[in-house]
Structures are given as C-alpha cells and as structure tokens.
Design brief:
- The protein is an alpha+beta fold.
- It is built from seven helices and ten strands.
- The strands form four sheets. It has a four-stranded antiparallel beta sheet, covered by helices on one side.
- A hairpin with a 6-residue loop joins strand 1 and strand 2.
- Helix 3 runs antiparallel to helix 4.
- The radius of gyration is 23 Å and the shape is globular.
- The two termini are 43 Å apart.
- GO terms for molecular function: zinc ion binding.
- InterPro entries: PKC_DAG/PE, Zinc_finger_PHD-type_CS, Znf_FYVE_PHD, Znf_PHD.
- This is Phorbol-ester/DAG-type domain-containing protein.
- Keywords: Metal-binding, Zinc, Zinc-finger.
C-alpha cells in the first residue's frame, strides 16, 4: 500500500512506519541507512521506530518536567514545614516533626508517580453522547462510537481494553467515559492526532495533583489575560496546559 511521506510529500511505498502515528517515511527522509531500514521492516524486529514528531524522548522530557514540578512543590512544602517547626523552642521536637513530614512528602511523591503509571494507558472522553441501552450493551456501543469519532487509522478496536462510563447516570447529563488502551503509545497517538469534533474532547486520565496544577495554570492564564497581557497563549502537552509567550 502506497501513501505520502509526511517529510517530502511524495508517494512512499514500503517505507518505514512510525510505531505511534503509523505514518510511513522514506528511509532517506527519516535519516535511516538502507541496512537499518531493512532491519526495521522485519516482522520479527524488536527495535521500534519513532518519527521525529513522535520521538519517545519528547515523552520522557515531558515526564521529567512533571517530576521537576513535583520536586519544586516538595521543596516548598519542606520549607513551610521547617518554618512551622521552627516556631517551637524544643529542637528535638523540631527535628522529629521535620523528619516525619519529609517521610510523608516522600511517600506522597512515590504514590503520585505510581498513580500516574497506573493511569498512563487511560484516556477520558468528554461529551460523547450517551444512549439509553439495555444493561451490558453500553460498553460495546460506546466503543463503536469512539472508533467512529476518532477514526480507526488512529485507534484500532483491538487496542481497546476497557470502555466504561464514570459515575451514576443522571437525566440530561453526559457522563465522562474512561477508555483504557493497551499501551501508553496508543494514548500518545490519540492525543497527538485527534482534533475535537462535535464538542467531544479527549484528555489524559489525570491524577488529583495534575488536575489541580492544570486548574491553577488556567486560572493564572485567565488573570493575566484580564490584566491586559496579549502575547501569551496556552499550549497543551499530553493534556497538561502550559503558558507560553507568543512569537512576534
């Protein structure tokens, strides 16, 4: 099957297929030697190929930024803890309180990282219509609707492990949908390639801490805009917002 190489826009037959976005590239356009290309075309290959846009290092960088943000928050919490403990005259009590709080903070960091790993294969779908079907039929119907909306070129039916509505059904209210995929790469591909349609939005399954961070960033953005800043905009990376300066 022939398709167009995204780099040179020419027809590409038997090219290298990115394991995330599934687009095919000429080996020359991808900077891959003929020998390497031959290995990457092997059906039994163990090495995966990622195009420049989907390079897994970008994912690692984003994860590192999130960890750095967590560390920053931990430092601020530790500083506040030490200041609070410094208000007493008993140094032994001070040390004990700081040590106990440090252990608690470390445990919270570990739990946060573990929870993010647990949610790494999940997506949350918002505003996807909810039909009144017989019990047991909803999951199949919702899966079909997602595949029709997003497109089977982005997500395959066999990649879907779980599809379930969150919360109790309420008349006139559409419940969010949790979609669990086989691998984090499937989640990244959907986030990169899906464009909102019919008011249906897709986001990562964020932890409480991540949701709070996202809420505060959106709140800061609104305040800065209302204060007259015009050269800023919101950029979303894997579902997490960031305020950036617009180029002149």
């Amino acid at each position: 099957m022939s398709s167009k190489c995204p780099s040179c826009k020419r027809n590409c037959k038997d090219g290298l297929t990115c394991d995330i976005c599934k687009q095919s590239f000429h080996p020359n356009c991808a900077g891959v030697s003929p020998e390497e290309a031959e290995c990457l075309r092997s059906p039994n290959r163990k090495v995966r190929y990622f195009c420049d846009k989907c390079n897994i290092m970008d994912v690692v960088t984003n994860l590192q930024q999130e960890i750095d943000e967590l560390k920053k928050q931990i430092v601020e919490l530790k500083k506040a803890t030490e200041e609070r403990a410094g208000g007493t005259d008993n140094n032994t009590v001070n040390t004990t309180v700081v040590a106990a709080d440090k252990q608690l903070i470390d445990e919270e960091l570990i739990n946060e990282i573990f929870e993010r790993q647990q949610r790494a294969n999940n997506l949350i779908i918002y505003n996807l219509s909810e039909d009144n079907l017989n019990e047991g039929e909803g999951e199949i119907s919702d899966t079909t609707k997602i595949l029709n909306l997003v497109g089977t070129q982005i997500i395959k039916e066999e990649s879907v492990c779980k599809c379930v509505r969150l919360g109790k059904a309420v008349a006139g209210k559409i419940r969010p949908l949790l979609l669990r995929l086989k691998a984090p790469e499937d989640v990244i591909r959907v986030l990169k390639m899906y464009r909102p349609r019919n008011n249906v939005y897709v986001n990562r399954d964020l932890t409480v801490r991540q949701r709070n961070i996202a809420y505060n960033i959106r709140k800061e953005f609104k305040i800065r805009k209302e204060a007259g800043e015009q050269n800023i905009k919101m950029k979303y990376t894997n579902g997490i917002p960031k305020i950036i300066q617009e180029k002149n």
